[in-house]
TrEMBL record:
GO terms for molecular function: ATP binding; homoserine kinase activity. CDD domains: HomoserineK_II. Pathway: Amino-acid biosynthesis; L-threonine biosynthesis; L-threonine from L-aspartate: step 4/5. The lineage of its organism: Bacteria, Pseudomonadati, Pseudomonadota, Alphaproteobacteria, Sphingomonadales. Transmembrane segments: none annotated. It catalyses: L-homoserine + ATP = O-phospho-L-homoserine + ADP + H(+). This is Homoserine kinase.
């Protein structure tokens, strides 16, 4: 459940008067997501014909100062044909508001569903959409440091400390070993670009095998471009618990990416290391949340060990195994 900030319907209705969006008809908290509070709003629409919007209130990990970067990036991608949600301007032109004491935005609603168990065809479509997004992002001049990069992983591991062993015996040592490996082999010289950095199936809206929207750009940043494919790979080509590897989905994801963007030889060669980094990143953020979220909190904690299993898989795989021949 990701509604951290509860906003009375009357307050949402009053908030809507700042926009040309009509009056509130219904507001429902959205259960999916873990970072921000999201509501699905139905309104009468500016012309009375009804409309849907997403209302997002920004919580713990989103820094208000980063919102202009996300807004400009989505404008840039949208103008180049990538289906991403627009931030709706209020009547006075501003897109960032305050509501219930939090930064808040009204966002375009996109149709589509997030698949929970992607098919091979859907994995291919996700790869194609990621590559198309990377092409469209070329020329975007905004920059944002990835707070969850290798130094950030060290920092998170330090914050989790010995509590990692409460999640699984020996985990603290395994994380330290992996960080030492990545310190030595992280391919920092690979091309950098603006990346999504969290393109999990829940952030890709689809109708059948067609991608209808990419959402949740709140981790987007400037980092190694092929790392974005590694993040996507880690999210799409395993069972949820990380125990089962789906090689057919992996080959399709990479074929889709090759169709719209592609990897250089250097990126292919470094791909297993990038995947190890991606697996460690999600292991650590999940571990941090696991340790710091009370078991009875409304938000569902995600299992860190699902990414330890992926990490173990990546540590024994080569580029051809992960990307298909
Ligand atoms: N623009 C949008 N159009 C349609 N649904 C959306 C949109 N933005 C968010 N959602 C819905 O809200 C859920 C949570 O949004 P998300 O941005 O992933 O939250 P969080 O950042 O908290 O993880 C998504 O899984 C999706 O169901
Ligand atoms: N994708 C991350 C958590 C971030 O959640 P999202 O709902 O913002 O995609 C994970 O699975 O650990």
């Amino acid at each position: 459940m990701a509604v951290y900030t509860h906003v009375p319907a009357e307050d949402i209705d009053a908030f809507l008067t700042r926009y040309d969006a009509g009056r509130l008809v219904s507001a429902k908290g959205i259960a999916e997501g873990v970072e921000n509070s999201n509501y699905l709003l139905e309104t009468t629409g500016a012309d009375g014909s009804g409309h849907r919007y997403i209302l997002t209130l920004y919580e713990k990990r989103v820094d208000e100062a980063d919102l202009p970067f996300f807004m400009d990036l989505l404008d840039h991608l949208g103008a180049r044909g990538i289906r991403v949600p627009r931030f709706i301007p209020a009547r006075d032109g501003t897109r960032l508001q305050q509501l219930a004491g939090r930064p808040a935005c009204l966002i375009e609603f996109l149709t589509g569903i997030s698949v929970t168990e992607p098919t091979v065809a859907q994995s291919r479509a996700a790869g194609t959409a990621l590559g198309a997004m990377h092409r469209a992002a070329e020329g975007f001049t905004g920059q944002r440091r990835n707070a969850l990069d290798l130094p950030g992983w060290h920092d998170l591991a330090g914050k989790c400390g010995a509590d990692l062993d409460r999640i699984s015996s020996g985990l603290a040592a395994r994380v330290a070993e992996e960080l030492a490996f990545l310190d030595r082999y992280w391919p920092a010289e690979l091309p950098r670009a603006v990346i999504h950095a969290d393109l999990f199936p829940d952030n890709v809206l689809m109708l059948g095998d067609v991608v209808t929207g990419l959402i949740d750009f709140y981790f987007s940043c400037t980092d190694i471009r092929a790392y974005d494919l590694a993040v996507t790979h880690s999210a799409w080509v395993f069972s949820h618990d990380g125990a089962v590897w789906h090689g057919d989905r992996a080959a399709a994801l990479s074929a889709g990416y090759a169709e719209s963007h592609g990897l250089s030889d250097a990126e292919r060669a470094a791909f297993p290391v990038l995947c190890r980094g991606a697996a460690l990143r999600f292991l650590l953020t999940r571990a941090y949340d696991w340790i710091n979220t009370p078991a009875d909190a409304l938000v569902t904690r995600k299992d860190p060990l699902a990414f330890l299993r992926r990490l173990d898989f990546y540590a024994s795989a080569g580029p051809a195994d992960l990307l298909g021949a």
